[in-house]
Please model this.
Amino acid sequence: MINAIVATAPGGPEVLVPTVVEKPEAGPGQLLVKVAATGVNFIETYQRQGIYSVPFPFIPGEEAAGTVEEVGEGIEGFAVGDRVATAEGSRAYADYLLVEADKALPVPEGLDLAAAAALPLQGMTAHYLINSSFRVQPGQTALVHAGAGGVGLLLIQLLKAKGARVITTVSSDEKAELAVGAGADHAIRYSSFDRQVLELTSGEGVDVVYDGVGRDTFDGSLASLRVRGTLVLFGGASGPVPPVDPQRLNAGGSLFLTRPTLKHHLLNPQERLWRSSEIFAAALDGTLSVRVGATYPLAAAAEAHRALEGRATTGKVLLVP
Model:
């Protein structure tokens, strides 16, 4: 038997109940991983509320890092004792989880497993955003929303490593300090941010906007772009964006709009290895600083959800068994 967090029914954080459940066993193609830390992500709050359809009761969690305890039949390349992480697991709010071997990410020696648990989803998201959704070139200017958040802090650092100029939006002085500490050239407030961006770019606008906020920032994001600029809308923390008339893209200056998601950028083991190995290597050599903003015991998952939904966190939120 193991400890897990079970969402008993759709609802608020209070439906996340510490529960003792059966320990899983590795089937063919699976790894049984003893969890060192689990990443808490907004998707789990949507699932818990019933916004995203899941069968109840269920154990949330897709992202974690730990040590392989059991190797299923037919697996090559992994052994008991290996350190792995994943952004594509399931039932990760637990002491143990099962991971499909082709979705397991090797964690290099020397990288702390807590840092490894904080990186797969947000780190590989940042990686595909700047390498695939819009390939950033030296000298270009990017606007990053929510610069003190988990993805935002990583994006800022990776953009600066590519030689870009970075403007970011934040909601407080504390978050501005974090964003500037990560390398942002300018940290501005959300109020009239599009006008501030135009002032900072001499009226030209930015080459790309990375927007994970959604409804509250979408219009201003379009207005912040230069001619033929690109809006990469990769999330909706403030809610979904209403339907958009494509003519707005023409009127704004032949703009580009894309709505990517991580799963379409992890299509095979080779792509997973490319993205994860570059992110883990950057964290290991210090190029990328991983901020764990809060760590909660597994049994306090409800408290972690309250903090995340209340925008009371910066960086990554982790659960530790």
Remarks:
- Residues 10 and 49 are 5 Å apart (CA to CA).
- The chain has two domains: 2-119+290-320, 122-263.
- The mean pLDDT is 95.
